[in-house]
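Run: sequence + zinc ion -> complex structure.
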Amino acid sequence: MSSLPDYFRPRQSQLLDLIRALVERETPSRDAARLDEIAAFIGSQLRDLGGDLDLIPSPGYGTHLRARFFGADSPMRAENPRDAQLLVVGHLDTVWPVGTLERLPWRVTPEGAAHGPGVFDMKSGIAVVLESLRALISLGIKTRRPITLLLTCDEEIGSRTSRDLIESEARRSRCALVCEPPVTGGIVKTSRKGVGDFTIRAVGRAAHAGLDPAKGVNAIVELAHQTLRLAALNDFERGTTVSVGTIRGGTASNVIPAEAVARVDMRFWDPEEGERIVDTIKNLAPALPEARLEITGGINRPPMRRTPEIGALYHHARSLAAEIGFELGEAGVGGGSDGNFTAALGVPTLDGLGVDGAGAHADHEHIRIEDLPRRAALITRLLQTL
Ligand SMILES: [Zn+2]
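>> structure
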């Protein structure tokens, strides 16, 4: 295998066509019909490659796709069930509503970037994994163990219907590779903050703002007090963040508002710190004498901590990248992914293995085309050697 990048380079335009085909299938979370369709589209390609395919319906959300490869002819026979396979995780959904393509169509620039909604997060990552599997098969390269590819349809909304599936596959896995976008520069992710999510509903009492103001209990004022308390929980040095992201309340300017609701995002590195903040939020007491608070939510993704096993996995990937001819950096990030779930089970996880680019969830979302051959080479070598 002298030069996998040389294998992938002449196939780059084919790979770009596949990425474009995925980007031009708009797949916002919860759009079940479109997510069913893209799962069927990718599934048929995986089946053509000889994958053992399961399309797992998730009513109201779409379809999760699971494809198993090399089950019959891998030399590695797992004695420990945790070594049974290598898991590759990705997601089919994007944050972009249908119609975004009209505003931000697929576009390749003279500078060598490919733009389009979901191209970086993470349709190019899916395409590269598919092409890496194709390379293994057409070059007759043996892997050390069976490979399971899991592409879920609800990652961007917290993986509520896929978490069990991800965790049950992870429990059988030697390690997990996540083809989410890298940090710009092609830098893989070896740790991720834990994520919490809360809804805080303040309940007051409506009254006429002009005739009976003293009879009202202003739910917006109540929520304003709570917003400041929540803001005071931020500890940037420790990496703990609490942010009131949305707030709504009231009905008209001349009515003392009886209700106001806030959505709150919380991030943390240390599990104990996470629990402490959850406790604090759940025990927030009303600031106004007659107001009431209803607080729901909690930790949605545990932190992915950089264990020695994750460090070893990164160093393995780094040495493969050096053989291919590039330097692979690592970083810890505040954003969560399904890698948080696999890592929290003790499964060594390497995340951010997708194609270099920038602008996840932003209008300037793009990938760098020149990164495609080496990223595909890296994924291929990881699938081969782990
Ligand atoms: Zn993503």
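>> summary
The chain has two domains: 4-192+304-385, 194-301. The pocket of zinc ion is lined by residues 91, 121-122, 155, 180 (CB under 6 Å).
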